[in-house]
Amino acid sequence: MLPADGTRALDEQPGSRSGPRTKVLYVSGWFRSGSTVLGQTLGSIDGFFFGGELRYAWRDTARNELCACGAPYSDCATWQPIMERLRERGLIDRQAVASLDERLLSTRHLRSLIAARGARGRHAAAFEAYRRSLDELYSAVADRTSARVIVDTSKAPTYALALQTIPSLDVYVVHLVRDPRATTFSRLRDSTGVDLGIAGSAVLWSAWNGLASRHKRKGRYLLVRYEDFARRPIDIVRRTLDLLDEPADALPFVDEETVRLGTGHSIAGNRVRSRSGDVRISPDEKWRSELGLGARLVVGTLTWPLRYRYGYVKS
């Protein structure tokens, strides 16, 4: 029986297992920046597994939503045994992990939790249980898929900080940015998700990308613009493999613009995650003709400092 905060006593620390460390390629940045197609492309490389937004593995499997392969998670040949293994370990139930994720990963609390992770107390104990659950999740994914590299497109910079505290993981960060006018337009034309409004989307674009840029201080960091990936995908994939110190001799490209995708098993994310077969990669720039002048001015003003840093100066 779990205590009220969803934790239980731990008999070992995260990462105390013997064996090689698991490489995690974490895609950080704001929503609607092209992380799904980047993740699909990298996940099609031999030895890579695209897990999608693994931060939501607990939530979506508990709800038994659909895997990218089209099957409910309870019937998916990849995810069913992973979640069964975690359930049998009995560290923490899925609803409890999802609740802790929302409670612990706020920007306001995470740094103090990381700094005090060895201390006693309700929040510190909850964070240790959360880290232990993440450690077990990524270990189970690596074992089930035999992946050398797990690609995680959860995007939240705070979640990357949590992963970086787990000794069994080697975390590499791709900071994926996209013109804020494009991401705002993408959110406006899609009714799914939380409606942040034009100003809210612009402010959070700056906040999340500002936080994501701090990962550069830790090394193992690569800044990628969506527009560059969409125009030169092979070049960006090669740069990413160089970051990971992985070979680039068998890329999944049919030609310079077309990637061959296998059947995916990613969690959450854009609905295009279910695509397979030959997919042409090209920039989506409908915002240039369809985003109104007023919205452009609002977004442009609120994102100006970082927009300039990332080269989004021209209209």
Please describe what this structure looks like.
- It is a single chain.
- With 315 residues, the chain is of the alpha/beta class.
- It is 45% helix and 13% strand.
- Helix 4 packs across helix 6 (122-145) and helix 8 (180-188) crosses helix 9.
- The longest helix is centred in the middle third of the chain and has 24 residues, at 122-145.
- It is globular.
Q: Enumerate the spans where pLDDT stays under 50 for 5 or more consecutive residues.
A: 1-12
Question: Helix fraction?
Answer: 40-55%
Q: Which of globular, elongated, flat, extended, rod-shaped describes the shape?
A: globular
According to DSSP, the number of beta strands is 7
Strand content: 5-15%
Q: What is the N-to-C succession of helices and strands?
A: EHEHHHHHEHEHHEHHEEHHH
Largest sheet features: 5 strands, parallel
In which order are the strands of the major sheet placed? 2-3-1-4-5
Evaluate the radius of gyration: 19 Å
Mean pLDDT over the full residue set: 86
Terminal-residue CA separation: 57 Å
Number of separate helices? 14
Class of secondary structure makeup: alpha/beta
